[in-house]
């Protein structure tokens, strides 16, 4: 397949306009270098005059570090400058490994820095390869610039690399993340016609996109087509994605049917699958079914996580069985799962709704001792509980503590406190009137 043939076929509703390489060249990479350390770059440059005695050992150590990953951007930025001043300069593969590791830094990968560094290398004469283009396309998609990612496909073609499913998957994910599912479907249809075979990753992206917009019918059709027309079989991720979408639309019978189907096909459900169904059953107040599913989960040796326990604790509290919820908390800690703020808030609110404020205070004390910082939900539950228990003075104390801790009150906080104060004032007035009448 020639480049012109590919471009001619993929010219669909404006997508090709983004393929043009000249558009990519006009982009001057004006992204800011977020978290860029000027000091580390300057230090690295100063060291370049007497760079390490064994460059090959240095490069090997960098490759090993890239496999382990980085915690911050300063170190890879310094490494880039040191690599760039080596003579002879390392090949593009080493830089690709560094850029890949940089794009995985959490929670805020320096994607724009990767783009800028890549451009610097190309301008200095280091020719990119297909992997380099893929890394850049991924960065652009994650930065929300799918148009620039498409222009890189045109660049890839100019470099003599035919399109493959890896970069197509990147573009599909970018389109889906940008809420352009119709363009993703068009692109997938085009590449299939060109003989590029989708992978399980491709189908996973499409399922995610369809379920994201709530098109369950199209997602189920895709599932059946995938089973009939492709060599790939749906995995647990695809089934879990579909089940989650059905549960969110309260289509529990269909979700349970898919759950039964996947088990019949020896596709083992995981903790995500069970969590989704337990949450769906609880949302429809099918308490007994959710308990049975939790028991099945344990029998299948699927370890529940914090989300599983939080859902169950919330369920028991909503049905007024707070003591049972407390038992779930004990089971949770016994199995080595650490409670979080959601866990404690659910249990605390359960006690508050029943007017058991002493037990609610006890939960808060345990929560603080456990190193969990109370949030606005914690204080709202306590303030509301005190107000309903006619302990407005304690509610006011809690409100003051809330502000002292730097937790901003919300509308619910103010409404609860105002309602409590008004009712308390009415009670005081009634008592005053009765006392006066008695005189």
TrEMBL record:
Keyword field: Repeat
Q: Which PROSITE patterns match?
A: PPR (PS51375)
| Highest taxon of the lineage | Eukaryota
InterPro entries in the record: PPR_P_subfamily (IPR050872), PPR_rpt (IPR002885), TPR-like_helical_dom_sf (IPR011990)
Q: Name one Pfam family in it.
A: PPR
Where would I find the PPR repeats?
Answer: 129-163, 164-198, 199-229, 235-269, 270-304, 305-339, 340-374, 375-409
Q: Which family does it belong to?
A: Belongs to the PPR family. P subfamily.
Protein name (Swiss-Prot/TrEMBL): Uncharacterized protein
UniProt source species: Saponaria officinalis
